[in-house]
User: Fold these one by one.
Assistant:
Number 1:
Amino acid sequence: MGFLQNFLDPKKNFLAAMHCKAVTERLRRYGLRYDDLYDPYYDLDIKEALNRLPREVVDARNQRLKRAMDLSLKHDYLPEDLQKLQTPFRSYLQDILALVKRERAEREALGALPLYQRQIP
């Protein structure tokens, strides 16, 4: 492993472990998962990955985001018992996102046109 990987590994670095704990605590307060923070308008690969997910998973993501915005506007957090049930680092997007990025890289290597492009109004 390289220096950077060791530095960012929470099991080997105290500061990385503290950061991971702080992120977990913040995500649990609002009932979010880490993958919910990806913005489909920022990266078209994320948008494509979200389009490939089952409808139930996307609906659950949207519901978590709406609940988090509602709690934030009310300056409130989830109740403690619900915070303990949250799984902020259970991924639902990473596998499909990696597949989309590999497909895009392969298309670029073959010289094919991109599957999706940003629409400029």
Number 2:
Amino acid sequence: MVPRAESTFPSLPALSLALLLLLSVPLAQAQAQGQKTWCVAKPSSDEATLTANLNYACSQVDCSILQRGCGCFYPDNLISHASIAMNLYYQSRGRNYWNCYFKNSALVVTTDPSFGSCVYEYI
């Protein structure tokens, strides 16, 4: 029998935990410094994911701002509507990084994504 060499690489769960902790540090620092944060959809997210995020967020928070004639209806596209709904959810749940995960299809940003008459809520 040939002895099996010990692996010098960390396990996948250990790597995942380390990555999660590293990614949460900038957000925690931003919030500790009193910096405002918002949640937006990743531009690389696919339509099915954005649709699911929009539907889920709007089942949990009031998304009436996305209705025709309201301030955030335009631009009338999926990524814009999903971002607004995801931010409403994130804000309403206390701005914790895990409330902006959406199956890894969202980003926490420190630049206000508001535009025109559409003001991204910050609670």
Number 3:
Amino acid sequence: MGKKQGRKAGNSKNKSASPPAKERSSSPAMDQSWTENDFDEMREEGFSPSNFSELKEELRTQRKETKNLEKKVEELMARVINAEKVINEMKEMKTMTREIRDKCTSFSNRL
């Protein structure tokens, strides 16, 4: 087994000892204990204690941006649905206009 594989196998034991994401508290004490348990794996992936808070803040910012984008998508979807309704109404009006025109033409020809 390679050096990294051995570490990852050891880290998987640490992961199973830590609570699932839904059960973790967002308190600073729980965050600190979680980072201590998984610090080796985090270091391998480029994390350090100095940039952890920066990464955490960046994730919060991205979460807010994602929520804003989701709201915009919902608004745009509502506008698309509304536009489709308007188009359908216009098609019905066009059909009705043709029918009226045809009746007028027919009536005019009779005269």
